[in-house]
Amino acid sequence: MGGGLRPRCRALFPGLQPRDAGREVRCRGAVSPLLAGPGCRGRAGLCRGRAEGVEDRPAGPPQARPVAGRGAATCAGRLSGAEIVMRALVLGASGGIGAALVARLQAQGAEVTGLSRSRDGLDLTRADTVADHAARLEGQAFDLILNTTGALVIDGHGPEKSMDAVDPQAMAAQFALNAIGPALAIRHFAPLLARDRRAVMASLSARVGSIGDNDLGGWVSYRAAKAAQNQIIRTAAIEYRRRNRHAILVALHPGTVETPLTAKYAARYPTIPPDRSAEALLAVIDGLTPEDTGSFWDWKGARVPW
Ligand SMILES: NC(=O)c1ccc[n+]([C@@H]2O[C@H](COP(=O)([O-])OP(=O)(O)OC[C@H]3O[C@@H](n4cnc5c(N)ncnc54)[C@H](OP(=O)(O)O)[C@@H]3O)[C@@H](O)[C@H]2O)c1
């Protein structure tokens, strides 16, 4: 980027949608013909600003003209390789799916903040750590917040095969992480969603948390905690319709993914690698509109019944 210069770009960026107006964009590639104000001159990476208008007209040759005042420039024409700068926050960045999402988002050019329990001390069962980490990010506006934390086995307690195996402490631990944890994540991090453009907060639930889809039984504590998470997301989404009309809050099922979480349990099921899950989840997220807030989706883009 050119020495802190931030030209105002009004451009037809390939791939930029009307809904992206207001997002920060970074131009890469063929911007060298741009000769308007300081900061919109030169090569890749020198043009960076906000998408203030997304014009629906044919691409012309790259051109730019100066705009009065403070060296701002208006860029018109097709700036090949320009990309939207997406600001993303991933909670649970150390996990199998979380790390894959971080890598995918970074590969797409997003600015990613990753937080985890093992590296940063963000423990979703400790409200103080959730509040502290959110407070450190105050003032940031994220396009995407992903909660990828969770566990199937906690303190040696795995999923129950029968109601006879229900243990109150193990069940409480499931609720603390897989239900109350996401509630705290929404409480403290959802206020960091951008308020002037589409912004998504998605939490990894699990299809086994679906009551409507439960034909197998078993795994009562994990299922029940994920079902509770689903209700929490639905409830928070209704509140957020009033608090931030651009916010979309959803629950996602990532598929049966080859991570430490499934290592002992997925043998009988077809699995997918974390990167495939991450790619698919980001595609599902990309297609969400504000009307979808409070819903539950699987990695293939199909609605999951509550
Ligand atoms: N893998 C699947 O097939 C599958 C299927 C359905 C749903 N899911 C859901 O997807 C999510 C991610 O699963 P995964 O497969 O990526 O699991 P994973 O590889 O075991 O990663 C779990 C992540 O959760 C974090 N975590 C665990 N306890 C935490 C706590 N108390 N506070 C904060 N973070 C905590 C871990 O952090 P540290 O390692 O830093 O401690 C790690 O980042 C989970 O919610 C899981 O239920 C997974």
From TrEMBL:
A Gene Ontology molecular function term of the record: oxidoreductase activity
Domain NAD-dependent epimerase/dehydratase intervals: 88-129
GO cellular component annotations of the record: cytoplasm
Gene3D superfamilies: NAD(P)-binding Rossmann-like Domain
Protein name as it appears in the record: SDR family NAD(P)-dependent oxidoreductase
